[in-house]
Amino acid sequence: QVQTIVNKALKLYSEDRTGLVDFLPWNLEAKSGSILSTRCTETSDARKAVVSLFGISLCHATRSPRAVIQPDVHPGNCCTFKGSQGHLVIRLSMKIYPTAFTLEHIPKTLSPTGTITSAPRKFLVYVNDEYQESGTLLGAYVYDQEGEPLQMFPMNHQTAFQLVELRVLSNWGDEDYTCLYRFRVHGNVAQ
């Protein structure tokens, strides 16, 4: 019985920890899954240390918005933007009916400071089509810094789309920057 539980856990881990198709994966970028815009969001300097101890840099942010659709969620391997607010507009690899999305950040245990104050807190998710200026609001959400590092937010939206916008409204207290590690969109392919 223990072996069955362990095998199920290992299988889920090997299935990108969700067991669901991610329509934003790095390996589908060639098939048009990509970051389209950060709107007017200013990203942080790439060589600015995210964490330093006694003047020694422990990790740097990658700064590139592409980090959000990459599978690597090691400390400092994130998209950073100045302040506590920012936007990302992303083209999915294909048009889908959304069923859920996930937002992932590093756990506090992997943070050299033991805190994740740069993690997104309140955020909105919009869907767009090619011709919409502002999109349709899917919902307002909160990433729980005390919860699991990977948090799933189910949804039920009846319209297929290919563009999604993530608007971070606040973080957990860092005044200088916010880190976005990984965002995933799950759903069913539109026919």
TrEMBL record:
<dbReference type="InterPro" id="IPR045119">
    <property type="entry name" value="SUN1-5"/>
</dbReference>
<keyword id="KW-0175">Coiled coil</keyword>
<feature type="domain" description="SUN">
    <location>
        <begin position="32"/>
        <end position="190"/>
    </location>
</feature>
<dbReference type="GO" id="GO:0034993">
    <property type="term" value="C:meiotic nuclear membrane microtubule tethering complex"/>
</dbReference>
<keyword id="KW-0472">Membrane</keyword>
<dbReference type="GO" id="GO:0005637">
    <property type="term" value="C:nuclear inner membrane"/>
</dbReference>
<dbReference type="Pfam" id="PF07738">
    <property type="entry name" value="Sad1_UNC"/>
</dbReference>
<protein>
    <submittedName>
        <fullName>SUN1 protein</fullName>
    </submittedName>
</protein>
<dbReference type="InterPro" id="IPR012919">
    <property type="entry name" value="SUN_dom"/>
</dbReference>
<keyword id="KW-1133">Transmembrane helix</keyword>
<keyword id="KW-0812">Transmembrane</keyword>
<dbReference type="GO" id="GO:0043495">
    <property type="term" value="F:protein-membrane adaptor activity"/>
</dbReference>
